[in-house]
């Protein structure tokens, strides 16, 4: 990714870089790591995350939830309301429509 695009996308001082969902967290994080090693796997947000100089110090946090799709949408809504855009490595909103205020 071009540096100018990455710099424009990054929110200074905001530690959240990506919000996602998974039915199997271990597999999802493994996909991200494999993407970082150059393997052709589906984790497009990794295009941004692996460009960060300190990508080896990124942390993963998770929440168990019975409605991961809904929770992801709510977290993205809250982030966007607070910062005016999606997190750094979120390229799309996901499969649930935007919340209407």
Count of discrete domains: 1
Give the overall average pLDDT: 84
Shape: globular
Relative helix content: 25-40%
Radius of gyration: 14 Å
Number-wise, the strands total 0
C-alpha termini separation: 34 Å
Order of helices and strands: HHHH
Q: Let me know the largest β-sheet.
A: none
Strand content: under 5%
Description:
- The structure is a single chain.
- Helix content is 39%, strand content 0%.
- It has 101 residues and is an all-alpha fold.
- The protein has one domain (3-83).
- The longest helix is centred in the last third of the chain and has 16 residues, at 68-83.
- The chain is globular and about 35 Å long.
- It starts with a helix and ends in an 18-residue tail after the last helix.
Main traits of this protein?
39% helix, mainly alpha, single chain, 0% strand, 101 residues
Topology:
Blueprint: H1 3-9, H2 25-36, H3 46-49, H4 68-83
Concise account of the structure shown:
By secondary structure, this protein is mostly helical.
